[in-house]
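Entry 14. Structure prediction run on the chain below.
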Amino acid sequence: MPKEEQVVWKPDSSNIYERFIEQYDEAISGEKELTAGDQDTRYALKLQQERLREKGVKMRYRITPRGFMADGKSLPKKWMDQHYVSEMAYYTSLWEREIETREGKTYRQKSKMTIYETKTDVIGGVNVEEEIYVCPGCGAPSKIKDLLNGCQYCGSKFQMSELYPTITSHYLVRDFSFTKDEMKKHLMKFMIGTGIGTFIFGIIIRAVKGMLLPLTVGGIISLLLISAFSGVVLGYFLSSYALIGSLVKQAGRTVPMMGAIGAGKRFEFFMKKYSPEFSYEYLTGKTVAMLKMILFAKDAQELPFYLGKPLGDRFQDLVDILFRGAMNFKGMKEQNGYLHVTVDVFLENAYVTDGKVRANKDEKLRVTLVKNLNMPIQYHFSIKKLECPTCHGSFDATKNKTCPYCGGTYRIEDADWAIEDIQVL
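Output returned:
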């Protein structure tokens, strides 16, 4: 991206939220490792990077905190299980994306966004050394105590602070707010533009009428005053109309999402009888993360948490996914000890087809999730570090569909949420 577009921002490396933002900017293009994200986040990114390479596409992000919540703010809700506690923070930011195709064409986009990040940490005083974690060095599932003493596969040693806290989910949502400085720039752009336009229009009219050469100093001053007045008054109204038009356009895009208002509370109300500790924020982040992996995978059915039909080539040109901040609860049913939940998820996707970029494509997916009601929620569950219920061996479900030690099968829906159906509406 051109240097003049860069905004100077120095992240605080001790702040996991800011460290994640900094790393994600470069990690999406493969220039930097995403160490601040958990193993599932890194795996979803890996699948997206493979899609980009397959399409011959280079993509870069730049996320710079801006606006009223540039320093980050934690949401009031927290959720926890026996060992881990999670909380969500959000930053208002300036988001820039650059997509370069194999043919050398470049698509640039700049927009205001709010980035939501979920941080998961160990509950103070809880011993998690027997928990399974993916070695950051070699990627092998190991017990945390082994990583602290030295990974049995690669010998790498880690401190607990290098493993936790970690970012377990994130997504971007469009931000329509204006700071005072942004509003001033918006007004000045229209005022100056209108003033200059009026002056040029006045010169052209005089030239057409043959009055240009006799133009006196007084005439020039008069034209400048008229242009200045026009710039202030007409420019103000034009900027207001432009802002209203932009808001109306965005409002039109959000009309289909109106049903999602209050969905979280309705969903939680129904879920409390099954799981008192249920968190709608957790399920939202979980669903978006699973969808990213499913839609970017070469074969979604190879993923242990996707139980649905083949997706065919419907998403083969997809290169980026933005969650629009809305997930509408449509219904739920209990059957044979399993809970089936249907939600509508609103996305804004980017496709590259035959060298042409189609960005800002609004799509609604109807997603059905399933989970065993008799198993408690594990808020730090990962497909990269499963423990076989038969022999208790640890393995990576993205590489093995059955336990590599005893051959036993593993049903993700018996431990965590899985997706059993996806429909494009």
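Residues 61 and 209 are 52 Å apart (CA to CA).
Filed with the rest of this week's runs.
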